[in-house]
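Table S7 (text form). Paired inputs.
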Amino acid sequence: MAKALAVVAALLAVVVFWTRSLNSQGLEALARTSLPLDEALGNGKPTLVEFYADWCQVCHQMEPTMAQLGQAHRATLDLVLLNVENPLWEQELDQFQVLGIPTFLFYGPDGSVRGRSVGLLQADQLETVVAALLRDDPLPLPNNQGATSAITDAKPSQGSAVGPRSHGDGAV
């Protein structure tokens, strides 16, 4: 009996670690396949930018929706994912005052910001916003902010003590 429980526990641990590794690879894979921000904003197509982090549970929750949007609108919409832990995006974090993630920026074909949303968006909400963006209509952005993960002023590239699983609260 004890051996059977040990085997079940070991299998469960393997499944949990495997699932977590798939989730981080999913966000990274979406980011790697997205266009560079300047290229997306200059090519005449509407653009959806998501600021995310590997440790953000809400970002992982929305990952299937983002992947589906990327596939469904590949020819008509640019999808750009920017990891807030990458020092390359510090200027954009400051410029767009990204204090919680996920933060979404919606750009028109001319490269101008048409709207912004912070926090969890349900799949149907995000699809409705994207559909309006593609039609060049006013965006029906939700009035309330969804669940987010906070970002502090400390930048990982500046040697902060913010750990990847701290959700910005300074605990490591």
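Next pair, protein 2 of 2.
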Amino acid sequence: MKLVLLLAALLLPSPALADWKPVEKVATYAISGQTVEELYVSIGEKGPVIGKDPAGNERRAIAHTFFKLTWQRDYRPEGGACVLKTARPKLIITYTLPKPAGKLSPAVKARWDSFAAGLAAHEKVHGAGIVEMVDKIVAFSVGLTVADDPGCTKIRAELTQYLDQLSKAQRQASRDFDKVEFGPGGNLQKLIAGFLIGG
């Protein structure tokens, strides 16, 4: 399951970070079946494609968190230096989750509802990590000053380097989080077992 990131909360909230909010959306893909086994097989067949395995076969996820991040930045030359006065993010997070196409029996629906809630909670952790990453970018960006940069080119290079570091950290944190969640005794391993076996 490719789910985007969990970064450690190293940044305390500040007024500079309080003036933006992410847009969160939920997208669903239809799965078929009347039993838990049929539903789970359908997830494997219809889940979002997240890449290919070494043999070239499509790899699919149960659920997926995707984000689109754009910026409005105000660079100002000041006395030969360049100052980044404002950096306002526009962050759209989309959670893709499975949804049964047909009506389920009460017993199957109860197990499905518990499974679906667990999946959504897992994705929300990734969403929270994305927001934390963007907060870190804002904190680093606003007020950033680079000397001897009247054309505001050096400052862009410095910012790009920082964003690249954060992006790599995000992807690694995502992989680490999912490894724990899917590992022995992990929350998602338990969630899947509970859905398929019950109890």
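The helical segments are 36-46, 106-141, 154-182, 187-197.
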